[in-house]
Amino acid sequence: MTTPMTEQTSTAKARADETRVILHDCNSLLENDHFVYISGHHGSGWVDKDAIFLRLERVRRLTQLLADATARIQPDILCGPAVGGLIVAQWTAFALGLPAVFAEHDVRRSLDELRGPFSLHRNFSRQVAGHRVLVVDDIVNTGQSARQTAAAVRSAGGTVLAIAALVDRGNTDAAGLGVPEYIHLLEYKIPNWPAAE
């Protein structure tokens, strides 16, 4: 007899296995090279999300898997950081039959920032105010984009239920993201190091 936890673990593993196959088939998982990330850290691998987004049937299947993994949370609306998180949030919202909005980099930034923090524009703050929000991203590297998007939702008066992503790089968790729950289809660990190292 299977217990609910065993079924949940089995379902999560099946989702992870299918996600890995899809990403492998589109050559999205890059390994054994030298990459410099937007954070300035260096690492030996990369998840090429652009390879995923070229074929909409991949996007549809991956976001259906993410919708299945997050449906129990029962959000009112989804929000993703532009650009990649926007695509995943919209398709996941479509699979859930819900609306979606997105956060953008704030053009007002300090001189030491490459990009400003994510914030809500286009009256999207009105859409999340007073609502239960699922923040959705594509690939979570350090979690900065997802954290800033969650902060933008909170400052607009929304309640962040969880953060969800297609792939987690293994560098953060729910506590590090500042949310009650963090859901991802696949954990693909790629260590990274500060440039000085």
Secondary structure topology:
Layout: H1 4-25, E1 29-30, E2 35-36, E3 42-43, E4 46-47, H2 49-53, H3 56-70, E5 77-81, H4 84-96, E6 100-105, E7 118-120, H5 124-128, E8 132-140, H6 144-155, E9 159-168, H7 174-177, E10 182-187, E11 192-193
Parallel strand pairs: 5-6, 5-8, 8-9, 9-10
Antiparallel strand pairs: 1-4, 2-3, 3-11, 6-7
Descriptive keywords:
197 residues, alpha/beta, six-stranded mixed sheet, 11 strands, globular
Q: What does this entry look like structurally?
A:
- This protein is an alpha/beta fold and 197 residues long.
- The chain is built from 7 helices and 11 strands.
- Strands 7-6-5-8-9-10 form a 6-stranded mixed sheet, sandwiched between helices. A 3-stranded antiparallel sheet has the order 2-3-11, with no helix packed on it.
- β5, α4 and β6 form a beta-alpha-beta unit.
- α1 packs antiparallel against α3.
Backbone shape:
globular
- What series of H and E elements makes up the topology? HEEEEHHEHEEHEHEHEE
Spans with pLDDT under 50 lasting ≥5 residues? Answer: none
The count of β-strands is 11
Compute the gyration radius: what is it? 17 Å
As a percent range, the share of strand residues is: 15-25%
What's the quick description here?
This protein is α/β, with parallel strands linked by helices. The chain has seven helices and eleven strands. The termini are far apart.
